[in-house]
Write a structure and sequence with these properties.
alpha+beta, seven-stranded antiparallel beta sheet, two-stranded antiparallel sheet, about 30% helix
Length: about 150
């Protein structure tokens, strides 16, 4: 029987700072064997990655997966385009939303679910500079109130 563990392997913390997250969905990801081993060791980075839709298929670009040490010739290009595994209806829904102005696909986290690597993909709108400043100010004020309450 498979273990039900949702262990985070990589997160994109900057995404929540740079984007308003409208919706999220879970996608499988097509990986090679050495990539899976490397990701399980926590050697993946989502910082500069984004999702694109090409001819009815969804890909994640810019996701860096470090080469596996014992992988030798079987290692793939660390920045290659990786296909996301979604149902056709989900892809159509994503395509409609991405066609709107200012909406993009942003990977939020990479995690294990029942032994398989999954990607949490967000439908997001970019924040303006003043939105980011508002978020920082709100967070700072909440922190100050919490500290004042604790004393």
């Amino acid at each position: 029987m498979a273990k039900n563990n949702n262990r985070d392997l990589a997160t994109n913390r900057k995404a929540r700072h740079d984007y308003f997250i409208d919706d999220t969905l879970e996608a499988g990801i097509a990986l090679k064997g050495t990539e899976v081993k490397s990701i399980r060791k926590g050697r993946a980075n989502l910082k500069e990655s984004y999702g694109i839709i090409i001819e009815g298929e969804v890909f994640v670009e810019g996701m860096h997966v470090s080469p596996y040490e014992q992988g030798n010739r079987f290692n793939e290009d660390p920045l290659r385009k990786r296909k996301l595994l979604l149902h056709k209806s989900e892809i159509r829904k994503l395509k409609r939303q991405v066609d709107q102005k200012g909406v993009t696909l942003v990977p939020l986290r990479l995690y294990l679910k029942n032994g398989r690597v999954k990607l949490e993909l967000a439908i997001a709108r970019g924040k303006k500079l003043y939105d980011k400043r508002d978020a920082i100010a709100k967070r700072d004020s909440e922190r100050r109130m919490r500290q004042a309450r604790d004393y």
